[in-house]
Amino acid sequence: xxxxxxxxxxxxxxxxxxxxxxxxxxxxxxxxxxxxxxxxxxxxxxxxxxxxxxxxxxxxxxxx
Length: 64
Fold this sequence. Notes:
By secondary structure, this protein is α+β, with helices and mostly antiparallel strands. Helix content is 38%, strand content 16%.
């Protein structure tokens, strides 16, 4: 199973967040990204937000 990741640098905002999250499963990664997004960026945990997170998931590990 390939690792999956999402990188805040792909979604620039005023916080200039450079966090990248990785996980073995898409479900685990979505939950971690939603938790980060709601606590740090003020996003709401909605189906639309979850869909946007899902669209940002990439295979592998984030670039250095």
